[in-house]
Recover the amino acids of this structure.
């Protein structure tokens, strides 16, 4: 991370739960001085208290970045503590779910540079993917800094507009839950074929994790990787004929993502 962009003026974190802690751990490991970090959190974790950062103490007058990482239901209570950082001097970077850019513009006032991000839970182990989008006041440098900061918890993609957040929510935001359910279902199928519980779950977890890692590392498409492992009239083909049937995985996944995306749109309204 470009530490010089933050070291001199400081970073304020409003909230530092699992997601915030995962990012902070990456920044500190990357060389950011604990002295540059100021955390506001009513219930700081034991880990956070051992980092050497300032917790619930005096904050800088003009921090480079204010990161907002509180739950949506706490936003109304939390934002007044940092409203003075609005107006454009400080970049507002939100990782809070469900809170639109307009809410921050209304809270911080005209000219405020706001970037909204949508991370997902694998960020806790550095394997997340985060979508970012900025308001009209956010500069190209702001977007670069946000991407660099968020890259400590995984990959980062840039959206063309905030409306795309709903689709991101339906895919990568909610997607880990779909995969966790698939792991459970795969393990249950293994148990039904006679494998013991612990072995069934171990096989299911490792298979999903390994396939995902291979898909990311390979230059071949997921389609080609599937073809590579499918021998004519073999066991994989027999299984895929069920998954790829008329009522198989593809239409089910389409309905699943559509339902989550539509729910996100409803909640936004």
């Amino acid at each position: 991370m470009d530490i010089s962009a933050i070291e001199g003026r400081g970073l304020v974190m409003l909230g530092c739960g699992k997601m915030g802690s995962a990012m902070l751990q990456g920044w500190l490991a990357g060389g950011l001085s604990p002295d540059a970090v100021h955390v506001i959190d009513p219930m700081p974790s034991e880990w956070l208290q051992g980092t050497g950062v300032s917790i619930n103490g005096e904050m800088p007058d003009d921090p480079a970045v204010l990161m907002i990482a509180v739950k949506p239901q706490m936003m109304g209570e939390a934002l007044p503590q940092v409203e003075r950082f609005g107006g454009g001097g400080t970049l507002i970077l939100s990782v809070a779910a469900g809170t639109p850019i307009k809410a921050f513009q209304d809270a911080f006032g005209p000219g405020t540079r706001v970037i909204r991000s949508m991370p997902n839970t694998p960020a806790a182990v550095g394997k997340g993917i985060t979508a970012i989008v900025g308001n009209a006041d956010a500069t190209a440098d702001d977007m670069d800094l946000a991407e660099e900061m968020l890259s400590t918890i995984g990959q980062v993609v840039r959206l063309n507009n905030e409306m795309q957040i709903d689709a991101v929510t339906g895919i990568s935001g909610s997607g880990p839950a779909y995969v966790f359910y698939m792991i459970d279902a795969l393990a249950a199928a293994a148990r039904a074929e006679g494998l013991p519980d612990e072995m069934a779950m171990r096989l299911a977890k490792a298979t999903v994790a390994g396939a995902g890692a291979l898909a990311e590392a390979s230059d071949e498409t997921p389609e080609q990787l599937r073809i590579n492992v499918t021998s004519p009239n073999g066991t994989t083909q027999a299984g895929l004929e069920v998954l790829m049937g008329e009522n198989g995985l593809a239409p089910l996944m389409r309905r699943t993502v559509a339902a989550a995306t539509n729910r996100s749109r409803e909640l936004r309204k």
